[in-house]
Design brief:
β2, α1 and β3 form a beta-alpha-beta unit. The longest helix has 20 residues. The protein has a single domain, classed as 2-enoyl-CoA Hydratase, Chain A, domain 1 (Alpha-Beta Complex), CATH 3.90.226.10. The protein has 10 helices and 9 strands. It is of the alpha/beta class and 274 residues long.
């Protein structure tokens, strides 16, 4: 256990480690091979993120995945009607915690980065991807949409986010870089070495207190907008989308490993965009 961090027993499915003489906190999504962001893992991440606020010398939070992949996303089982409200509250709570934590964040992505995994990576100040990584927001293929992805992807890559959100197709790392979804693409064999050198050169020499204030200022407008819009989209998801038969059908078809049978019922969209 590192000073100031929860004990390993308090962080199931997550490994937290201080690096660079305690100036960088690495949070490993530790449930290979797919590193699904289920409620247990999200709760562990929230504990670690909150603890980071009390580490005054910290310059960076790094999220990465154990094994060959960053994350396949949130738990599909937890999207079922009787569980989805609790799942969304916990998952979106992680991002609200991150908005209140001024330490800069970086996602280091290898392999697949999908669904909730891409939402986490996209929220970070920097998204680094290995050249063999694939990134996608496939929720629409399950008959649902990604509330956070619907806000984060347009922020990162503008109108090009529409294709990712409405088709669910994944893109490779170079395409993600061209779109603005990724900030850096690095070779698989020495990407972590390149990242460590970048951290030493660009972040470690800086004042931690000034860095946190600069980060808050840089994201001031975005965080204010995100906080309000996320609440509205969460309500739209739970009260409108989940009232349609196709939302449940898509989730159950995936879990039962069959093709969905869409009805199109309830296709008059309720709610308001304002």
């Amino acid at each position: 256990m590192s000073p100031g961090l929860p004990a390993a027993s308090e962080l199931p499915r997550v490994a937290a480690r201080l690096e660079h003489d305690g100036l960088v906190l690495r949070l490993l999504l530790d449930a290979p091979p797919t590193n699904v962001l289920d409620t247990e893992m999200v709760r562990s991440l929230r504990k670690a993120v909150r603890a980071a606020r009390d580490l005054p010398d910290l310059r960076l939070l790094v999220f990465t995945g154990a094994g060959d992949h960053f994350s396949y996303g949130a738990s599909v089982e937890e999207h079922l009607p009787d569980r989805v409200a609790g799942m969304l509250a916990e998952f979106h709570g992680l991002f609200r915690d991150l908005m209140e934590t001024d330490v800069p964040t970086l996602a280091y992505v290898r392999g697949r980065c999908l669904g909730g995994g891409l939402e986490l990576a996209s929220f970070c100040d920097w998204l680094w991807a290995e050249e063999t990584a694939t990134l996608g927001q496939p929720e629409i293929k399950l008959g649902v949409f990604a509330p956070l992805g619907s806000l984060l992807l347009p922020w990162r890559c503008g109108a090009q986010a529409t294709g990712l959100l409405l088709t669910g197709e994944a893109v490779d790392a170079i395409t993600a870089l061209t779109m603005g979804l990724a900030d850096h693409v690095v070779p698989t064999e020495d990407g972590t070495t390149i990242l460590d050198r970048w951290i030493r050169d660009h972040l470690l020499p800086l004042s931690p207190s000034s860095l946190r204030r600069a980060r808050r200022a840089a994201r001031w407008s975005f965080h204010r907008t995100l906080a309000g819009d996320l609440e509205a989209l969460e309500q739209f998801y739970l009260e409108d989308l989940m009232a349609t038969p196709d939302a449940e059908e898509g989730i159950r078809a995936f879990l039962e490993k069959r093709n969905p049978e869409w009805s199109g019922a309830g296709d008059a969209v309720g709610g308001s965009e304002s």
